[in-house]
């Protein structure tokens, strides 16, 4: 690999990390409250409201059912409105975050549903309100699952960011398509695949270690 290609590889890696981290943080900030809302408004939840629950569920399922490449194209007008362009790394963050938020919300919902009902009832018996239950029971008890789900979401976002490279989002996917595929430079394709494997394994390893430290069982 030439020095120029190596420099492009480093720049593409930075763009992929930027897209993954930025969209991951947004999906965490939006997806966790959405997951909490789904659990709280479900039947028997701390704020039971089946109409809201079904409405939120329909929205989440609707976004999750759309393939990412189609969502990427469909959100171009919104991306232009927010970022000012539909191309580049920052433009890709918008559809990545919107796609990842409902995905992570469902993962968080599963972890939150596994919290021992007896703990919730105990806090209620002591006069704890809904926010106390969320802050002192639901989130702390489900934290290992929440972190594990966020790790899976980040790994999924790496794959999605590579797909976004197909329409000019930059990153490792764009490098693999423009140089590895279109110019038949096998060394570039191999290098991109190797970097993606290392990146995914690194994120998964760190996430697993963090979950092990948080798990009090």
Can you describe this structure?
The protein is mostly helical and 217 residues long. The protein has nine helices and no strands. The protein has helices at 3-40, 50-65, 68-74, 76-83, 89-113, 117-125, 130-164, 171-181, 186-214. Helix 1 (3-40) crosses helix 8 and helix 7 packs antiparallel against helix 9 (186-214). The longest helix has 38 residues, at 3-40. The N and C termini lie far apart (48 Å).
Helix-strand layout with pairing:
Blueprint: H1 3-40, H2 50-65, H3 68-74, H4 76-83, H5 89-113, H6 117-125, H7 130-164, H8 171-181, H9 186-214
Helix pairs in contact: 1-2, 1-5, 1-7, 1-8, 2-5, 4-5, 5-7, 6-7, 7-8, 7-9, 8-9
Helix content: over 70%
Q: Unreliable segments (pLDDT under 50, ≥5 consecutive)? A: none
Strand content: under 5%
**Largest sheet descriptor:** none
- Average residue pLDDT: 85
Keywords for this entry:
82% helix; 217 residues; mainly alpha
């Amino acid at each position: 690999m030439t020095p120029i290609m190596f420099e492009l590889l480093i720049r593409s890696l930075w763009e992929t990390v930027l897209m993954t981290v930025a969209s991951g943080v947004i999906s965490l900030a939006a997806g966790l409250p959405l997951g909490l809302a789904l659990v709280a408004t479900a039947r028997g939840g701390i704020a039971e409201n089946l109409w809201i629950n079904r409405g939120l569920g329909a929205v989440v399922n609707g976004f999750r059912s759309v393939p990412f490449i189609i969502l990427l194209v469909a959100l171009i007008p919104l991306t232009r409105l927010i970022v000012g362009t539909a191309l580049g790394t920052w433009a890709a963050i918008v559809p990545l975050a919107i796609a990842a938020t409902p995905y992570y919300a469902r993962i968080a919902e599963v972890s939150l549903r596994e919290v021992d009902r007896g703990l919730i009832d105990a806090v209620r018996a002591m006069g704890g309100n809904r926010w106390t239950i969320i802050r002192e029971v639901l989130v702390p008890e489900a934290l290992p699952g929440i972190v594990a789900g966020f790790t899976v979401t980040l790994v999924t976002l790496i794959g999605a960011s590579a797909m976004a490279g197909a329409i000019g989002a930059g990153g490792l996917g764009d490098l693999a398509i423009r140089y590895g595929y279109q110019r038949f430079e096998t060394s570039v394709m191999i290098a991109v695949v190797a970097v993606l494997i290392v990146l995914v394994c690194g994120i998964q390893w760190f996430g697993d270690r963090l979950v092990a430290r948080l798990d009090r069982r």
